[in-house]
Amino acid sequence: MAKRGGGDVEELTPREASKLTPLLSTQILGALYMPTNWRVENRKLTQAYINAAIAKGAKFREGARVDSIEIAAGRATGVRLADGSLEAGDIVINAAGSWAGEIRGLEDDRIRFYPVRGQILCFDGRPGLVGPSLFSANGIIVQRRDGRILAGSVFEEAGFNKSVTLDGIERVSRAAKTLAPSLASMPFREAWAGLRPASQDLLPVLGPSPTVGNVMYAAGHFRSGILLSAITGEVIADLAAGRKASIDLAPFAPSRFRDGTARPVKLADWK
Predict the structure, then answer these.
(1) 243: which DSSP letter?
(2) Tally of CB atoms within 10 A around 203
(3) What are phi and psi of 145, to 5 degrees?
(4) Which of 24, 64, 229, 252, by CA, is between 20 and 30 Å from 220?
């Protein structure tokens, strides 16, 4: 799939993979190396987006929960906040992540969003110890520039509960040790959990609502939110300004749930 998308992919023998990343288990059968795949510090990227938006005149209302989209004569007039106040607007963009389905007013679109919990373990290591990020069918290992090593992750339907659980810790630890056994001796630093925003078919939902013309979705990115954040912002900005999107959005159209073309995928069957 990466090759079809124009990416660089090299098939490595176990010896070649171990030379590139000595931490790898000696039990590996082979590996794929993708040298043009990069990683980013998600917290710093989020702050950079915030700073850039403010510099362009955006205003943030922190701690203000959106209860519903106010609709009159088939068009949105703004959003109703939990305190009853109305924030008026010409265009409404639902980019509420895991909470996108909690906002009332778009029930006729027939889109269900739900949170998928992931748990991450963090260890202290020396910078450069891991090398390239490691991915397997059961887990991932990513190192930050300051030496922190992140291991994850599980996929759980636990509602909006962001607790770290003993079962999650055990599953992530087992997967990490299988992939890189020497992590067992690394000092533990912290653990946390987050929520991935999923749609019924586990694909992003991008573009105009099929029932309310001046409402758009930028939601349902599941495990690829950071990866797709820049292109999502670009295409939604284009649509909001009346320009044609730079990519074909048909596979991600919100209307697919209403017209029955979306194929639901169970989380338990996803890999």
Answers:
(1) P
(2) 18
(3) -65, -30
(4) 64
Token duo for residue 179? 């992939």
What letter does residue 160 receive in the DSSP assignment?
B
In the numeric block, the tokens 């171990």 are attached to 18
pLDDT on residue 137: 86
Among residues 147, 137, 155, 136, which one has the least CA distance to residue 193? Answer: 155
Give the DSSP letter of residue 40. Answer: -
Three-class secondary structure of residue 149 per DSSP: strand
Cα separation of 92 and 223, whole Å? 24
Rounded to whole angstroms, how far apart are CA atoms 197 and 229?
13
Gap between the Cα atoms of 208 and 94, Å rounded: 10
Give, for 222, the enclosing helix (H) or strand (E). Answer: none
Kindly state the helix (H) or strand (E) to which residue 151 belongs, with its residue range.
strand 149-152
Residue 155's alpha-carbon distances to 109, 200, 202, 250, in angstroms, are 26, 15, 12, 27
CB 187 within 8 A of CB 124: yes
Residue 205: per-residue pLDDT: 98
Strand 215-219 to 205-208 pairing? antiparallel
* 255 in Cβ contact with 199 (< 8 Å): no
Q: Show the tokens assigned to 85.
A: 């106040």
Distance, CA of 124 to CA of 38 (rounded, Å): 21
Say what the pLDDT of residue 270 is: 74
Residue 29, SS3? coil
Phi, psi of 20 (to 5 degrees): -75, -40
Q: For the chain, which residues score pLDDT lower than 70?
A: 1-7, 271
pLDDT of residue 2: 54
Pairing of strands 113-123, 86-88: unpaired
